[in-house]
Amino acid sequence: MLKSLFLRFLKDRILLILLYLLNIVCVLLFFHLSEPANNEYFYPLAIGLFFLSLYLFIDWFRFYPTGRAIEMRRKGQNVEWAASTEEQKAFQRLLHRAVSEYTKENNELKEQSKERISLLSHWMHHLKTPVSVIELILNNGEKTETLEKIQQENKRLHTSIEQGLTMIRMDQFGNDFEVQTVDLVGSLRKLINARKKEWIYQSLFPSIESSEEDAFIITDPKWNEIMIDQIITNAIKYSSLKEGNKKLVFKVERVEDHIHLSIIDEGVGIPPYDIERVFQPFFTGENGRQHRNSTGIGLYLSKKIADKTGAKITIQSVHGEGTTVILRWLATGSK
Questions:
Q1: Measured between alpha carbons, how far is 4 from 14 in angstroms, rounded to an integer?
Q2: What is the pTM for the complete model shown?
Q3: CA distance 207 to 220
Q4: Largest separation between any pair of C-alpha atoms in the chain
Q5: Helix, strand, coil shares, percent, the chain, to 5
Q6: What are 272's strand-pairing partners?
């Protein structure tokens, strides 16, 4: 850093140094032309260079503290900055003013965003009430094909509301995060059993294949189930677009110190040119243009939760044949 600061210091003063040297040469030339017999150059030149060096030496010690402070702040270190010259003081005042205005504007935007999120959250919670009432009425009524279709659409509406609420809760992730030892197979059974009607309605047959008797992982159980549930929702959505019976396999295996879960569906798959972007928010790709149910939220939420909980998520797909989402967690011995 010292070398780069010194080069920058000389670069800023190169014009001054050149003009000063030119001035010395002009003075020496003047005296030589006035008195040709006078050949004394060394002492005037030495005196001139001495004062130039003295000026640069003093100026360097006024430049260095500020230059060093700016460099350290650029690297993210918070250091005090004492301006020495009038130019530095003017720049410091300008910087303080810019920071003050930015902070004020940023705080206003945060407040506006917080208010909007609060209103959106309340609105979405109000939406859950009629959806739950409709579900209750449909469960107590006589089953017909039409009512079952309404129930499935109501379920989709409920899933979309939950996705929206999950996105809102992600902002306060740290306040609702608790790492525990989690039985992965038990979590999968719970999630599968919660969708019994959907499996039947969509002609989809889930199965768990585990090479391990126990598959305990370290994660937050609530967020982990939300993450897996998003992937299951996608698997159901894109498997339902194909005719006939389909399988959805949950393959659990231990790889060294980690537990891997592969969720393998037989859906429509993802085109290879879309696969790199599936974790981007609201990206639906070619499947989204062909199927109106795509939202581009599920995999985005899964990736966000995986990143925050320390899990790893990858995806493989063959267009027209199906998709495999692989999740990886750190394994632990027992609960």
A1: 15
A2: 0.66
A3: 24
A4: 125
A5: 60, 15, 25
A6: none
